[in-house]
Design goal:
Layout lengths: L4 H7 L7 E2 L1 E4 L5 E7 L1 E3 L15 E5 L2 E3 L4 E6 L2 E7 L14 E5 L1 E3 L3
Antiparallel strand pairs: 1-9, 2-3, 3-8, 4-10, 5-6, 5-9, 7-8
């Protein structure tokens, strides 16, 4: 059975508003790690699995969109980790006062 375009696009719909992250680990030697607890990535249908992983998540630091070269992300049991690569932030240090948010192909697993 063929899926309609509506079926496919509903599966990749993005969160309607950004999700605020909290500090997970700022003392890691390579990354500043932040976490979105209770959020998971949507499973992609076969028809759209060619989508680049970098397109699945957008990240902002203090309202400035961050390039996908500056972070990596990982889905863990209780949420999503965003790991900012320290060497990409020359002259800037992330700390607990920074406002980090994400938006993308994610859903809230539990409230």
């Amino acid at each position: 059975m063929k899926n309609t375009l509506l079926d496919i696009t509903q599966k990749i719909s993005r969160t309607p508003k950004p999700v605020k992250l909290v500090v997970e680990n700022l003392s890691h030697p390579t990354y500043w790690i932040w976490k979105a607890t209770g959020w998971k990535f949507n499973e992609l249908r076969r028809e759209i699995q060619y989508r680049n992983d970098a397109d699945r998540l957008m990240v902002w630091v203090n309202t400035v969109r961050i390039s996908d070269r500056d972070f990596i992300y990982e889905e863990v049991d209780d949420g999503i980790l965003v790991k900012f690569i320290k060497s990409q932030f020359i002259g800037y240090v992330l700390d607990s006062e920074d406002y980090i948010e994400i938006k993308g192909d994610i859903y809230q697993q539990y409230a």
